[in-house]
Amino acid sequence: MPALKVNLALIAAGLVFVAEDELGAARGYMALRPTGMGGLILLEGIFVDPACARSGFGTRLFATAIEHSRRMAGSVIMIFSNPHAVDFYSRLGATKIGMTPFVFSPDVQLSVFAFTIPAP
Ligand SMILES: CC(C)(COP(=O)(O)OP(=O)(O)OC[C@H]1O[C@@H](n2cnc3c(N)ncnc32)[C@H](O)[C@@H]1OP(=O)(O)O)[C@@H](O)C(=O)NCCC(=O)NCCS
């Protein structure tokens, strides 16, 4: 689905990060998008190779999201979570603030989370 592809403009802007394993193989990515509204940063996407699920890559990528958002003067990361990732974001300390239909498949409800970036 084109809308779910990694956005080249975000790569060029240095907002896409890749997690590698100890051999240097790409195992996941995370992308951020500043919204221009106060300190609100959107988690554009986070994806881990299913073969590496539950190995900590997602947590590492989210830690990078926090670190980079802080550098961009972010105070809150907003997340639109698919139903399978809800436990992941809850475990990371994000707060569920609502639900919204997935624009490309409105029968799927996304959970909206807000993660408050802690002071360094
Ligand atoms: C969601 C996703 C990013 C998690 O990445 P991950 O590398 O597997 O996550 P971690 O190993 O860092 O997991 C950290 C904790 O989150 C929770 N968690 C992660 N995946 C979970 C799952 N499928 N079910 C329940 N809890 C889960 C667990 O508490 C886990 O800790 P534990 O393994 O010690 O119990 C990954 O599964 C993924 O890419 N999914 C497909 C794409 C996706 O849904 N992306 C989110 C878009 S909104």
TrEMBL record:
What is the superkingdom listed in this entry's lineage? Bacteria
The identity of this protein, by name, is: GNAT family N-acetyltransferase
Which InterPro entries does the record associate with it? Answer: Acyl_CoA_acyltransferase, GNAT_dom
- Which PROSITE patterns does UniProt cross-reference here? GNAT
Q: Which residues form the N-acetyltransferase domain?
A: 1-120
